[in-house]
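User: Okay, second chain of the day. Same drill as before: sequence in, structure tokens out.
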Amino acid sequence: MRELQRNLIDALERGREQIVCQVVETRGSTPQKAGAIMVVDPGGGQLGTLGGGCVEAEVKQKAIRRIGQSGTDLQSFVLDHDYAWADGLICGGKMVITVEALRGTEALAYLRARQTLLEAGLGFTEAVVVDPDRAGTPVGTRYLFDHDGIFVATWPAGAAMDSLEEHPVALVDRPKPGVRGGVAFLPTLPRIRLLIIGGGHVGQAVAALAAQSDFDVWVVDDRQQYVNAERFPTAQRMLVGPLGEVLPALEVTPQTYALIVTRGHGHDEEALFHLVKTQAPYVGMIGSRRKIRLIFDSLLQAGISEEALARVAAPVGVDIGSQSVPEIAVSIVAELIARRNLGSKGTADRSATRSDNLVPTAGPAPT
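Assistant: Same drill. Structure tokens below.
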């Protein structure tokens, strides 16, 4: 999303009109959910997706025809035989999509305000009018609010605020997109920082996949040769030094997830000792059942409470019978996504058993 927004702004700054297509409402099963964006260039280029298939193709064709026009076109699609049979996308759902050509300084001002909020990573909500009769404002009118629900900007500039009867739901509640009072509320939730402790093979594989899944990746290791831009090209930050010095100095917020994948039990234990006491809502650790039991027993003797250890995801990841490093990375990132999207329900209950479900049976987990 961030790259798409940067490219959109860059195109408008160069005076090149762009057509923005966005899913603003869905019902039932659909290939993309509300908030998904596709940007179409007058030359036929495309960034982002509305889910592919014939719906996306039709929207793209209509988008090209809106070059030079003003205002917003609202399109509805029911994913039945008429629209989706050829692509095998008979989902039975409904998608409502806005299509608008953007150009000029006023559009740029709004997009830059949205980009600032997006880059800050604290989240924001965009409210888009989809029913002008109920909202009393033209279709496609947009209102931008920051993570605290404070008004930031409108598009078109100067759009009336008094017709907006409702306001965004607090992002702390991780609200879903929805339509109220003829207005679609599209929240962009706070971005999660993933703190990976250990720059070995598993950490490297997780970092690459997590970055693609829109986590901000930080990597910590005490070995300089393992933490560098060549091994972690997508990392936002890399920190090298003894774990006992680096970890206590880090600011760990409620938007920080921690993953422990070091090269040895002693380093894992040291990292967990520091991280389990932080505000991080998710702390995961790779390892076998025996290793986890030994580390937990040692930390209990060191004064860490049973309640604190009970929230540790260990062995980390979704049980998919992982054997190779790429499979382990997939299982871990799947759980990270589930935790981000579903809250605490996205982390499996490991209180009853801690099986060796994420490590190769032939030996210790590669890190």
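The radius of gyration is 23 Å.

User: Thanks, on to the next one.
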